[in-house]
Amino acid sequence: MNNRFSLKKSRPKVKLLRMFGFVWTLVFLYFSITFSFEVGTLYEGVYSCQKNVCTIVSYLPVSEIVKLDDSQQIIVNKQEENLEILKINNLEVVNNVAFQEITIKISKQNFYENQTVSFFLKQDSQNMWEILWQNLKGGDAL
């Protein structure tokens, strides 16, 4: 007859799996906090080049233009450059959202004249938990 008050020994495989799971959780938490990802917004604009001065003209929300500064980076055609704004003008309101025309100077690219191109404005870097919180929180209220 089994003694119901006796201690049962757990199998070594269970202990090994528990230890592996604990170590994996610690490693995952460490890497998710220490590594950060570049965060930004993808926009489209019209590329043009005149006398070795190449620009992209696009419409951005005024709320995004206010946040722009010269320390930011722009990625066009997989090339990263410093953001250099030539001019900002022509305010338009579409569905109660204000947009402004912005002209950004970039280096010469292999695009056609007046071709619509995509560019990425890097804003800052965030770790995985900050990105997850932003996505769970939802969009900004207007």
Protein model, in words:
With 142 residues, this protein is an alpha+beta fold. The chain contains three helices and seven strands. The protein has helices spanning 12-34, 62-65, 128-137, and strands spanning 36-50, 53-61, 73-76, 79-82, 84-94, 97-106, 115-127. It has a seven-stranded antiparallel β-sheet. The longest helix has 23 residues, at 12-34. It starts with 11 loop residues before the first helix and ends in a 5-residue tail after the last helix. The model has no long low-confidence stretch (mean pLDDT 82).
- Along the chain, the helix and strand elements come as HEEHEEEEEH
Low-confidence stretches: none
Number of helices: 3
Oligomer: single chain
Inertia-based shape: elongated
Strand order of the largest sheet: 4-3-7-1-2-6-5
Distance between the termini: 72 Å
Which range does the strand content fall in?
A: over 45%
What is the residue-mean pLDDT, rounded to a whole number?
A: 82
- Biggest β-sheet strands, sense, barrel: 7 strands, antiparallel
Going by helix content, strand content and strand pairing, the class is alpha+beta
Tell me the helix content: 25-40%
Q: What value does the Rg take, in angstroms?
A: 26 Å
